[in-house]
Each structure stands twice: as C-alpha cells, then as structure tokens.
Amino acid sequence: MGTQDLKTDSEGEHLRAFTKHLLADVRALEQMIEDGAIETDVRRIGAEQEMVLVDSNGQPSPVSMEVLAELNDEHFTTELAKFNIECNLDPFVFGGNCLRKMENQLTEMMLKARQAAQTCGADVLLTGILPTLAQTHTTLDWITPMPRYYALNDALGRLRGGDYEFRLTGVDEMIIKQDTVMLEACNTSFQVHFQVSPDEFARRYNIAQAVAGPALAVGTNSPLLFGKRLWRETRIGLFQQAVDTRSATHTADERKPRVSFGQQWVESSVLEIFREDITRFRVLFGSDSHEDPFAALAEGRVPKLQSLRLHNGTVYRWNRPCYGISDNKPHIRIENRVLPAGPTIIDSIANAAFWFGLMSGVSLEYDDITKVMDFDDAKANFLSAARHGLHAQFTWIDHEQPVPAQELIRNKLLPLARKGLENANIDAADVDRYLNVIEGRLNTGRTGAQWLIQSLAKMKGETTAAVRLASVTRTALDRQWQGEPVHTWPLASLDRSDAVKRGYRRVEQYMTTDLFTVNEDDSVDLVANMMVWQGVRHVPVEDSQHRLVGLVSYRQILRLIGDQKPGTNSENVAVSAVMRENPLTVSPETKTLDAISMMLEHKVSCLPVVKNDNLVGIVSDHDFLEVAAELFKKELTE
Fold this sequence. Notes:
- There is one protein chain.
- By secondary structure, the protein is α+β, with helices and mostly antiparallel strands.
- It is about 45% helix and about 15% strand.
- Strands 2, 3, 4, 5, 6, 9, 15 and 16 form an eight-stranded antiparallel β-sheet that branches.
C-alpha cells in the first residue's frame, strides 16, 4: 500500500491491466519457488509498531504529517488516520540476542517519535484502541491526506454500495453506522514477521493459525471502543467489519470478508493463499508502476512483484503471507497481525517472543499440526480469545474437554515457547526476560485489557465517562514511559487535574444516552408515569424509524393537568397533542459553550442530541448544573 500512483476506476482499463500484471506476478513466484530462487538458508524476524498520537489531555492529536516531517526517518511512515504513525523495525536474524536488539531499536525509535511529537504538542502512546476515541474522530476530516488512503476509502465504499454497519456486543453493546473506512483507524497493532522457506511454509503457517488464539489471549489490550466495554480484543471484530465490502445480500450468499482467519488449513504452498485471495477478492485499484517479472528473472534481477504485493495489502488475513526482498534475495514470511500495540515496549516484545517461541516450539512437538488439531477448533480458539482474553476456553490437542486459557498457556504452551526459543539459540537471559513477562500476566490475570477494565470499574460513578477515560489514558501514557510491564501496574485512579475542561468540552462527553422515549400515538398518561418512575423531566418522541419528531417536558404535562376540565381523562390524550414538534437539537460534537448559548437564547431547558437523523442522547440544564458544581468545587478549593 506504499505506492501513490493508484487508479481507482473500477471498470476501467487500468484495473484490467493491473489484473494482467497480478497474474504474471503469481506465475513468476511459482517459477521462482520451482527453481529454488527463494531464500532458504536464513530465518529473520521483524516487526511493525503502530502508535497513537495524543495531546496533553489524552485525546487523539491529528499531527502525524508534522511529526513525520520532524522525524525525517525512513523507519517511520503514515497510517490511515492523522493521529497514527507506524515504525518499521529492521529485520534481525532469529537467534542470539535478536529479541534484545528488537527491544533496543523499538525503544530508540519510540524515543525519537516522542521527541518529534512533543515538538508538535503531542506524545506517543502504545495501545490497541485509544480509550478516548469518539466517533467524531472517524470522519474524513481525520484521514491522512495522501492519495492511497482516499483511494482505499473510495474503493471499499464503491464495492459495498452503502454505509458500513457495525455491531459488537460485550458487557455493553455498540450499534453504529459509518459512511467511511475510518473506523479501521481505531486499531493499533504490533505486527510481527517470521521468515520461512517455501518448503516449510504450509507447516509453519498452519502452526501460526493454531497458536493465534493463545498468543492473542495473553496479549489483549483493546477492551474499549467509544467508551463501551466490548471484547477483550475489540480490534478483531472491529477490523473485520471496518473493511468488509459485503452488503447484506453478499453476506447472505456466503461471500467471504476481506478480513478473515481463513477457512481451512494450507496443504502445501503459499501459492494456495495468493490464488484464493485473487479469486475471491476483486482488485480495489491499479497502479501505473509495473515490472515484467519474467524479464527481470531473465536479466538476473529479483522481481519486485509489485502488483501481487499491492493486492495482498488489501486482503487482511490475521496471519498473512508476504513476499519481500532482503539483501537482494527474495523471501517469504508470515506476518502476524493478531497482536495489539502495547501497553509498553517490553510487553510488545514479550508478546512477540511468545509467538516466535510457539512458532518454533510447536513445530518441534508436532510434525504436522493438521494431523492432531481440527481447523475449526483453531478458528474458534481465536475468536474466543478475542472475546474473552485469558478467560477464554480452548479446544486443544490431547484434551477431550475445553481447557481454560490460563491453564493451557501456563502448563503447556509457555514451556513449548521456551523450548522453541532455546532451540533457536536465543540468549538464555532474554528468554527469561520476555517469557517471565508472559508468566507474570498468567499469575496475576492482568493483561492490558484487564487493567483498563478494572481501572474503570474502580472509578465507577465518579464524574463523567470522558474524565474516567482520559484518566486511564493519561495513566497508561505515564506508566508506558516508566517501562514496567502491565501486570505490575496498580490500577489507575481518577485524574482530576483540569477534569472540567477535559470532561465537558463537547456534548457527547456527558450527554445522557440511556433514553426513555415514546411514540407520538402513546398516551400522555404513560409519559407522566415514566417521568415519575424514572426521575426524568423530558421525554423525546420518536417515530417508527427512531427519528426524533417531538419532545414532551414535565411543564407541558403540568400545563395539561392545570388546563384539564373536570371529568376529562389524560389517558385519552395522545402525546402528539402536547409535544413540542421539531425541537431544537444539537449534534454530539457541539461544544458545551455553544449548547449553553443555544439554551439561553431559545429559553429551553433541554436539547436532544441527534446524529444521522437518529436520536443518540439528551442534555439538559441539570447536566450543566453538575458542570457548574465541579467548576465551583475546583475553583473554590484552590
């Protein structure tokens, strides 16, 4: 996806030409594998670290282009959103002190990124999904202004033919619509690479699939999205829906999503995956940059296979095969896209070490994982890990019944990972350093996701959700730079410094979202009882499509009772007779001061909050009284 000269005409000659080059690249790769031209005498590892840019209040900071200009370092590159950047680490030969080298380089790169970010009034944070993100941060205003990102958004939207619909359920439930691909930008990962030879690809790739669930369970760090508690690794469900080009019709006819775990074990070759993905998934866009791979081979050059790599970059398997070139030699590697970023550098490297160890150790234990494990079990384990983290139940080899994730990892997989790292001649001190972090999480039950959830639970009932989310974000940032792994962190406490400013800037930060509504044909008597039972003074009126059509206040109910003639019954009065039609509304992004000005100017005590024609919340003068109370408390105490 690094190229800029993209052509997005889905019906045009550019895509037909691109498809021709894509097919040529696959045939060239097949010939290179048959001729033994792919590197086999070395195993390298690598990583890509995505990071979030935040301001002093823990909010996303859209300064990626300024930060990258300040960095001026080819290790760093853009991501989809202005509040994300990515660092590509150098490849290291798998063995010796490679893990410590990876940690040292990542530390060096993070410090450079932090210095550049601070020059731009920001900081860098490692987190799977930034807790303070709001849906207002996922509009095209926040997209990185580069052609390939606009091309990706246009191409996916064109194939889908309508809005993206998201539904995820955990402790809370999230149901939203989105008209751009920008929800993908909420995800921040630590992608690790493991180089393999063509002959061993199928065996190693299947191992990567088998251990994806355990590796994810012990590394979860994304339990929140827009303040809602969803999966322990919400990235997994979110990303699959964020770039899903299928409409409801396509889902019904069982077309496969572009983000997937896969459907079956690989039998013999990396070509199986490339061919299947080309067959299943349409080309999103073409490029003018093409090379004849067979001409390159004839001239003794290594072909870049640009078209194959570009298409492969638009199909998002959680374990993705990659073709690359190192030291002028072509190679194949497995890219693990499962792991989230953070919470610290050592946590990220520990996650990678555990996965590398399993990739090596499981291959020592089982000659062919497909002979002892069903693919559907591997896939179910992965989804269970995403939903439940260390509380997942896994179906595993030699276990007749599902086994708790913590038990399986502690008793079986952690020793296997240790054996695998030792077999690769990884320095013993480094094996202990990183796998002891994994063991610490198992002993405490505390992953990054668990720390976030428990910290928020500790603050429950205090101030607004926005302040609580900012508090855990700012605490995570501080702890990240202190460098201790997450399983040693005490729970975050409420950070009241400038809490009013941070927690009440926009209506969406404190509006009431647990709404009681009525239909315009309901009785006024029902509304009156709702107000008494639920302690509310305003009841929105919706039509059958959940569009706001009116508002009933307690004053209107009192006026109706006061004007009521003897012998009349309010049960027979419809809501439509007393409601205020077309009430004044605001959007979730409305600034607090603007909302207050509107209420004063129009002499109203309540503002329904509407997004995309749907009622999403309500804010009243009582909410502003709470804001004033916080402000008085802070100012008078000082």
